[in-house]
Amino acid sequence: MNLSDVSKDLLLKTASGDMPAFAEIYKISARFVYSVTLRILGSREEAQETTQEVFLKVHRSLRDFKFRSSFKTWLYRIAVNAALNSRKKMQADRARQIRYNENQLAGEVNAVETLDNGLDQNRQTEKINELLSGLGEEQRVCLVLREMQGLSYQEIAQTLNININTVRSRLKRARESLLKQGGYK
Q1: Can you tell me the mean pLDDT for 3-23?
Q2: Contact between residue 54 and residue 22 where contact means Cβ atoms under 8 Å apart
């Protein structure tokens, strides 16, 4: 199943309080939301928690969904915003912890676990997350949405509520930064 399986009828049923319809939307889109939040946050635990927050927001806000954009774009926007908010909270929490005990800084760096237990996949995922962590937040989000989630430039612009030329610029800078990080100048 994918997000194109979420019909207008299913959305309207959910908006009117039909819990089985909401469960169906969750079933169809939870993996997608988790994937987006994981790539932005880099932490499985935070991504799981943020995914739940996203669906609470979807449940509360679906009555206000006006079908001006696709459900996918609307859901992306909620997921990206929730992940960015979680990331800011994570960063603030880390900063507080560092102030209390600078010796624990090394222990706060968490390696990202993958869903696939394969060793090669783990190494590849760790390298990807290491490279992504070297990017600025705006570049990372654009790159994740484009390269890992397959959104078009227009969909990214709509999701982030920015100009399409800003999307192009951020992606260009992100790719240049990745090339430099990888030693490929």
Answers
A1: 87
A2: no
Q: What CA–CA distances, in Å, run from 143 to 56, 82, 136, 159? A: 26, 17, 11, 13
CB-based contact 54:37 (threshold 8 Å): yes
Q: Which domains does the chain have, with CATH numbers?
A: 1-110 (1.10.1740.10), 118-185 (1.10.10.10)
Amino acid present at 13: K
The closest of 32, 58, 53, 44 to 145, measured between CA atoms, is 32
Q: What angle do CA 105, 106, 111 make, to 5 degrees?
A: 120
Question: At a CB cut-off of 8 Å and minimum separation 6, what does 50 contact?
Answer: 37, 41, 79, 82, 83, 86
**Rounded distance, CA 128 to CA 79, Å?**
21
Residue 28, burial from CB neighbour count under 10 angstroms (0-12, 13-18, 19+)? middle
Q: Is the whole-model pTM more than 0.85? A: no
What is the structure's pLDDT at 114? 38
> Which pLDDT does position 95 carry in this prediction?
62
Distance, in Å, from the CA atom of 41 to the CA atom of 116, rounded to the nearest integer, reads: 18
Joined together, the tokens standing for residue 106 give 């090394």
- Separation of alpha carbons 168 and 176, rounded Å: 12
User: What is the residue whose two structure tokens read 């089985």?
Assistant: 20
